[in-house]
Amino acid sequence: MDRELRTDGDYSFFARNKKIQLLGWIFFTLSASSYIASSIRAGDLPGLLGGIFFLGACLVFLYLLLTEN
Predict the structure, then answer these.
(1) Which of 20, 45, 55, 60 has its CB surrounded by the most CB atoms within 10 Å?
(2) CB of 52 within 8 A of CB of 22?
(3) Beta-carbon contacts of residue 50 (< 8 Å; ≥ 6 apart)
(4) Quick check: 5 pLDDT over 90?
């Protein structure tokens, strides 16, 4: 059986889903920050650059999530 996406104004479903997405992106952002801190401590330049790009991508997705209608 296929589940259909409800489009009949079930705002609570979409609001809850957005909160879960926001929480997920916050955890990803914290993870990226920890990765950056670990890379700095270890002197790992490639890891640091990867962490910075990862954090930047997380911030872009957070921005898009928070500014959508």
Answers:
(1) 55
(2) no
(3) 35, 39
(4) no
Whole-number Cα distances in Å, 20 to 13, 17, 50, 55, 65: 11, 5, 25, 19, 11
Residue-wise pLDDT tens digits, 31-58: 999 999 999 999 999 999 999 999 999 9
Ranges of each domain in the chain: 17-67
Backbone angles phi, psi at 43, to 5 degrees: 70, 30
Q: Is the pLDDT of residue 69 over 80?
A: no
25, 61 Cβ separation under 8 angstroms: yes
Three-state DSSP class for 69? coil
